[in-house]
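Sequence only, no structure available. Ideas?
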Amino acid sequence: MSEHVAAAQAPTESLARVILTGAQMLFVAFGALVLVPLLTGLDPSVALFTAGLGTLVFHGVTRVTVPVFLASSFAFIAPIQGSVANFGVPATMGGLMAAGLVYVAISQAVRMQGTAWLHRLLPPVVVGPVIMVIGLALAPVAVSMASGETSDHIDYGPAILLSMASLLVTLVLAVFGRGLLRLVPIMGGILVGYGMALMMGLVDFTPVREADWLAMPSFTAPSFHWAAILFMIPVAIAPAVEHIGDMIAIGSVTRRNYLEKPGLHRTLLGDGLATSAAALFGGPPNTTYSEVTGAVTLTRAFNPKIMVVAACFAIGLAFVAKLGALLQTIPGPVMGGIMTLLFGSIAVVGMNTLVRAGHSLTAPRNLVVVSLILVFGIGGMQFGGGQFTLQGVSLAALVGIVLNWVLPTADEE
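Reply:
I predicted one. Tokens follow.
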């Protein structure tokens, strides 16, 4: 019955309401959207463009049936930082394109075989610690940025003041915020930290003055290297599994079963093609945004066309060059303070995955799988060399999958 009600309400929405609500949805997603490129060294204007493009691709594949907005994925922050440092931006984009194709392959397997095989291949005992590795592998980078080690013109004292103020505002809004404020904790933290940096004279506006008002974003074409591809492909596993949860979450809000219509295989396909399309232009991978799902819950804005409008706004803003230059003036310690919470939050998501599964982590089999994933992923273990080096998240995911496959189950022990 709720589907008929929603269908009846959609046509009565005025164009002005749809446009205004779409702009609001982009505002909710904006802070997290630009955070990923700012932390990984990518161009925020390109990220805006590819978020809009990816959202349009997703809605094209799913026929505008799911009210979601796609933008920069937090799960890829640490892997992108590591890949850019080791292989450069173009090779990283090639690896991200391959990661998007993993989504596509999974979507086709789901279409033909359902999801049971996916849960057998990637149970919580594998997915949970892999997500934890994603969050914790580069935690020292967050601390370095927060303490000013990566900033040439900001000393330790001012850096700690900026980073902790940004962190404090972010967590206060996340925990105690109400209504719209609770949906934009990252943006709140950045604004307060940036305001303090302005008062302390630590912001250089030279890039903003030199930038044109309108300009093409600095697109980067991908190049393809085996090492970068092998490094990035396993990272797609955890977000692909989380995608199922995202579809269930938005479905519980709108009271529709998106796993059946348009179908999980279509939503996964849209997500994968959106990620590959983003990498084609030099943008970070896309994923469905929980912030926007929260805004949908708050505003009851269930019309998927609103997200199409938000995507168009994002593409338009990408060509405002002064906006991109302004975003890049945000001091490193401000971003570092938020990163300390962000990376920890990703690790907690992994922990929660293990807790919800209810398995005993002291059972020998589970102890072995989880321990080796964490130590290999966080400790810096690597196998191979040259173009075929396995390390970090990719090694951790592969080790987890293999151990889960070869070790006997509890019933067999």
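The longest strand covers residues 70-72.
Hope that gets you unstuck.
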